[in-house]
Structures are given as structure tokens and as C-alpha cells.
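Q: Fold this one first, please.
A: Sequence and structure below.
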Amino acid sequence: MSEQGQNPGVPGSPAREPVFLLPAAVTVLAGLLIAVHLASTLVLNEDGQIELMFWFAFQPYRIVLMAQDPGLAVPLLWTPFTHALLHAGWDHLLFNTAWLVIFATPVARRYGAGAMLSLFLVSAAAGAALFAVTTLYEGIYLIGASGGVAGLTGAAIRFIFQPILMGRHPETGEPVMLGRRLASMKEVFTNPPSRYFTLIWLILNAAVPLVPVVTGQSLAVAWQAHLGGFLAGFLLVGLFERKI
């Protein structure tokens, strides 16, 4: 049976539960992704869509063209980050947004909004970098939040599967939850839940380029962005750990 608390502002009144249980930063970021896609699909015409991709999608081939026309490389200053705001369709957007909500939430609650957003952006750029290394001369572009979301996944894996630590209140002696410790990389792979999740995630994404060999059809999945983003979040999350 659920219980109702008291609203501290009005004696005798029930406490109000928050409508959204997500951290504000996660809600804002998810809302931004949806707003950008709404604007791009409902406001822009075909020419506008092309311009949007030209200026804000990440296109590695610009690096090659830099020698011919340095101006073509200018968007490389921001597109490693802005590509994460664009999506190919509603299914692409909704999948990334759902994954974002799941893994950005524990990161934001543990480290705060600034750290969560920093990991998202750095991971998006890391995913773009690995994408560039593997597709430099192909003339294709990268869009989608999956690199940044993969980074938040890699960061969360370092602590969400760890046991909750308990302590004692220094005055009352009552049990107190201290939270979960950040696992070392070795501990991630010795803990069965985190080991299986990490290995399955890595294997599935690394297997994407092998799909054409088996099925004869390629998948329009930027596995490079997933792997690059995941590794960035997995390795860098320790920089935000508070020293106690």
C-alpha cells in the first residue's frame, strides 16, 4: 500500500510527487533532441534539409577536401558535436532517446548535469573520430546521438552493477546507504553482470560490419560511433568521481 506524506508548505495537505522523475538535465537533453527533429521535419523543406546536413552533420571527407578549399573544413569545428542532435527518422530518434533516458539518468544523478553533458559531448566527438578513421574517403556523413549515448552507457557500466555500500551514521549508529563505488576496469570484467553486459554490447557492435558477409545486406548503423563513444565514457568517467 502506498502512503501519502504531508506537504511541508501547507499543513495537513498531501505531499506532491514530481511529475517527471528524470533529472532536469536528462529531460532537457531529450527534449532538445525531439525539438530539433520536429523543427527539421515540420519546418524545413527539402533544400533546408540539405543545408541542415551540410552545416551540422559530421562529414569526414571534409578533411580530404581541406587542401583544396579550407572553407569546406570550417564545419569540422562544431559538427563532431552537432551531429548528435540530428536523426534520420522517428524510429532512430526514439531509440536513441529511450537509451539516453536509461543511461544518462544514473550518470546525472551521480555526477550532476555538467558532468553528464560533458561525457555526452566528448563521447559524441570520440565516436565521430573513430567514424572518420574508418570512412574518410567514403563521402558519407554521421548523424545521431548514439555515440554520446554509448558514452553514457560506458560510464554507467562502471558503477550501476556494483553492490550498494552500507555504513553507519556517526551519531545514531543507524545503517546508512553510501551508494555504489566506481569499479576499476578489471572489476568490471570480474563482476558477472557488468562483464556480460559489456562483452555483449561490444560484440554486437563490432559484428555490424560483418553482417554483409552473412546476409549480403549492410546495416545503416554507425558502429564506429558506438564503439568510440562507449570507450570514451568508459575510460573518462573516473575524472568526474568525487574524492572523499
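Q: Good. Now the second chain.
A: Here it is, same layout.
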Amino acid sequence: MKRVMLLIGTNLAIMLVLGVVATLTGANRFFTSTGLDLGKLLMFAAIMGFGGAFLSLWMSKTIAKWSTGARVIETPNTATELWLFDTVRRFSEKARLPMPEIAIYEGEPNAFATGASRNNSLVAVSTGLLQAMTREEAEAVIAHEVAHIANGDMVTLTLIQGVMNTFVFFLARVVGYLVDSFLRRGDQESSGHGIGYMITVVVCDIVFGILASVVVMYFSRQREFRADAGAASLMGTPQPMMAALRRLGGMEAGELPQNVATAGINGRPGWMALFSSHPPLEERIAALAAARR
């Protein structure tokens, strides 16, 4: 729950900050100087929506390493580090990927992959996962993260987030303009936007942002099924991935910072699954079992 709310809250905060910047700089006049210009507004919304999404993607590796305290393995110094290094390299070569950065961080069982592209990626594994899982189970989790990179999931989710941010920004300002025009009808002397516009836009940014998060999280859950299937393909059998997921069912997966929450390995059941970046473990296991049959 905490991880989901942080993720949603971060995206809402980005949209609110962008909206405030647009208001304070007078950028809103760009598409309302002669009435509401939907074409200009859509163009401006796309710049703001995709700009924020791709900025987050570009910074994802740096922020992930800083926020988790992950230590990048340049040269393996222990047997565990050597095994991890060789495992990531083996799966990367099989997936025809450049070698990603490899990192270990202190924490409960979890892992994630992030980065701006297939050629600029990071695979990070927690000490809790390495200690609690068998080598085969941990290999399955690593294969899952490599599959995320091979599938281009970071860029795909960024594009989806950019589209949703664009429409949140666009629709919030259309509704704000209409509400403000209604409240100020008959007032021929005033110019610019009134308080009705600003309040409506903020409220709509929040409401539409929550609804957009449901859509983004749906696509995030679908990519988890594909990454599970990718891990099964890389390992030649779905059994290790299924065993890893069953193992996780008896663990409390470590909370990840909001900027990498969609890249972890666990999810939550119940109605909050609508806001979860990962499907319930039972559904993922069932999907792998069905594919095996």
C-alpha cells in the first residue's frame, strides 16, 4: 500500500508542479489568448507530459542507485558477486543485450531493472533475496529482470505514462477553462484566468491523475507476465520462476522507492490491485503453469 501510494503521489506531484510552473510563467496564455485553442493546448500538454516522463527515465539509474544505496559491482570480489556477475552476463548474452550494470543493495527480498534503454540499463538485487532464495530461484528472478530490459519495458512504460500525463494536463485545463468561463460569464472587464480556473485545474489534475495511474498500472502488470515468460524462455523451463514466485509468497518483499517501484518482483492482491504495478503472485504462477501445459 505504501509503495503504491508513493508511486501515485509522485506522478501527481509532477503534474501539479508542471501546472503551477505553467501558471506562474504565463504559459497558459499561449493557448487561451484568443479563446481556448485546443491544438496549441494539446501540443503544450504533450511537451509537458512527455518531457516529465522522459526526464524521469533519463535519471532512473542514478536515482535508483542513490535511493536504494545500491553498490555497483565493477569487479567481483566475493563468490556471490562473481556468481551474480556471471549469471547476469549469461542471460544478457542469451537475450542479445549489452552487459547491464550490476548492483547489490541492502534490504528484504526484491530486485529491479531500470535504465533509459537496452544499452544503458541496471540490474539490482537485494541481499535479502540472495540470502533467502536458492541459486536456481535467484537465477529465475535475475532472468526476469533481464527479460524486462530485453522487452524494452522501461521505454514502453515511459511512453504510456507520457500519453496519460498529456491527457491529464490537457483535460484538466479544458475543464478549468469551461468552469472559469461559466463562473465569469457576463464579466467583460476582467482578463486572464480567475480563481475558478486554478482551483478546478488542481482538482482535475489530482482526480485525472489517479484515474491515469490505474491505466498505467494495468500496462505495468501486463509487462510482468511477459517478463515471467521471458525468464522461463531464458532458463529453458518455467519451473524455477514458479518456484521463485512461490518462495516470495511466503516472504514480505522489500519496499522499493517510488521511482523504481514498478520494476520490482512482487504485487498485492485485492481491490488495490488496480493500483498495483504487479499482479498477485498466484496469477503469475497460474500463467506460467498454463504456458507450460
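Q: Anything worth noting on the second one?
A: Residues 2-67+153-292 form one domain.
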